[in-house]
Amino acid sequence: MNILSKRRRMLGLAIIFMLCYLKLTSFASFNPQNTFDIRLELGSYNYHFYRSRLRNWSEGRCIDVDEDNKLIIRYCDPDVIQSFSLRSDNHLVFDRNGLCVGWEKFQENSTLVLKDCQLTTETFNLMNDSYLVFSNSPEGKNWCITPQPRPRLNSKGKDWLPSPLSPCLDDPLALNKCHDEASRIVLMEEEWFQEDRKLLRNLVAPKDNPDCDFKTCALNRLPEPIRKLSPGEISKCTKPWECVTVAVKTARRPLLVIRLAQSIRDSFGYDLPMAVFDDGPDEYPKEITDQMAEFPLLNYVIGEDSDYGIAEGRNKAVEMVKTKYFLLLDDDVLMMDTTDMQMMIDILDTTDATIAGGELAKRGNMIAGFLQFGYFNDPTKTRKMGVGSGTCQKLNRTVPGFPRCFQCDLNTNVFMAKTADILYIGGWDPELKILEHRDLFIRIKAAGFKVGVCRHILLAHAPPHENDKEQAEGYHEKRRRGGTRFRGLGQNRWMFQGSFMKGSFEVDPETGAWPFMERSGGFC
């Protein structure tokens, strides 16, 4: 065997060893001994991770550094370098200035600061990809980088200490006993982060506007009017089953999906392709799969995970779509005589709208409205998003050719969409297992896409009762869990802290702005 062959054999064995190592470490449980130790070689150093944002798991804000070189909690800002690198010597480097993370005093609860790396002795291990643990924690203890909330005064002037799970902006970080949730971080490589936040990055904060001076304030404008396409741009859909797929995320409720498929057949006299994604991992008994087989256009996929959440499940359903449009529906809705699907198709065929929305019968559509961002005269300068319920209908910017439909920013989760446009914006935020709705429509507006709403296009909402055979065990627990966390993740992605809805029937025809009362908010 020549030298070249020997080297090739040694390289092959090294690759096999590395793949086996990766497979073994991917199943590591939460254990202080299970530290991530795959090193990336760059320049004169190896790295455990390189140029990655450290996001607080509970609400999605980033670890940053203030003017005094103290580690603090801030919004994840795509215009600011906030990444860290963990070198092979286990020094944690802040990439904006090349300094290393250390402490003010060697003790629990000690505030973390930046120091000259040559003078820094503090080192860290990355545990389970989710915890930065001080390498020399005292015996029997594990100290993690953890938010250290500061005392504040609440709206009644009384002392208030925020939870480490919901730290306020500019709260410091310290070495504390590792906490399953408060100490948990999400690593985001900088390139991945920038792609994930490309729509936010492209927004420019208004200048000289003290009432709204952050990035999402750039969305305080009316969208361009929905435009009627020229004859040469129009490609008419004459066979709905060739251009529309029903996209559904379900959570172990196959009988509801079968009921919906039957409703489509009964209402329209034909089947539509259906892309359905379900939580797993178990297959269904033959009596259910036989019923599914009665609908040959039903593509029913069961995932391996038991809890994908609404957003990721919808993304997976839309990725299955092969038609130019999809009709987003929940599994517990039914078609009605008033479900004018052809009008939705015609709107998307003949205009540049991305969304043609309807609503659920007897539920109203309080959500339909224009969005507005700002401080809303709040003396605490808390950034908020407001929804002006009824403002779209009041302004009545009709969709060309469809006088009963009007343009809006936000609508319910009953709509038909252009598949390519939703894929372009990245679909739904997969972190949001619930409360995913508003984030999608902010993305749509930030991308410059347009929304039409037709309140006379109605579907029936027919949820099962708790003990009905169609209901899944534990369904309501999935739908109601973690509201504070998922609400925070959705808001912090767009760098604001709160939201509210105001019924309003006055709207500025030039800007889409609507009047509001002073809105005092929380401090975090």
Please characterize this protein's 3D structure.
The N and C termini lie far apart (about 65 Å). The chain is α+β, with helices and mostly antiparallel strands. Helix content is about 25%, strand content about 25%. The strands form seven sheets. Strands 16, 17, 18, 19, 20, 21, 24, 25, 26 and 27 form a ten-stranded mixed β-sheet that branches. Strands 1, 2, 5, 6, 7, 8 and 15 form a seven-stranded antiparallel β-sheet that branches. The chain is globular. Strand 1 and strand 2 (about 45-55) form a beta hairpin. Residues about 1-40 have low confidence and may be disordered.
| SS content category | alpha+beta
Helix amount, in percent? 10-25%
Low-pLDDT regions: 1-39
Cα separation of the termini: 67 Å
Q: Strand count, sense and closure of the main sheet?
A: 10 strands, mixed
Question: Hey, roughly how much beta strand do the residues contain?
Answer: 25-35%
Radius of gyration: 26 Å
Shape: globular
- Mean pLDDT comes to 88
- Give the count of helical stretches: 13
The number of E-state strands comes to 28
Layout of secondary structure:
Elements: H1 3-25, E1 40-42, E2 45-56, E3 62-65, E4 71-74, E5 84-87, E6 92-94, E7 99-103, E8 112-115, E9 124-127, E10 131-134, E11 143-147, E12 152-153, E13 159-160, E14 173-177, E15 185-189, H2 190-196, H3 198-201, H4 240-243, E16 244-250, H5 254-268, E17 274-278, H6 286-293, E18 298-302, H7 310-319, E19 325-328, E20 333-334, H8 341-350, E21 355-360, E22 369-374, E23 384-389, H9 391-395, E24 398-399, E25 402-408, E26 415-418, H10 419-424, H11 437-446, E27 451-461, H12 475-480, H13 483-493, E28 498-503
Parallel strand pairs: 16-17, 16-19, 17-18, 21-27, 23-28
Antiparallel strand pairs: 1-2, 2-5, 2-15, 3-4, 5-6, 6-7, 7-8, 9-10, 11-14, 12-13, 19-26, 20-27, 21-26, 22-23, 24-25, 25-27
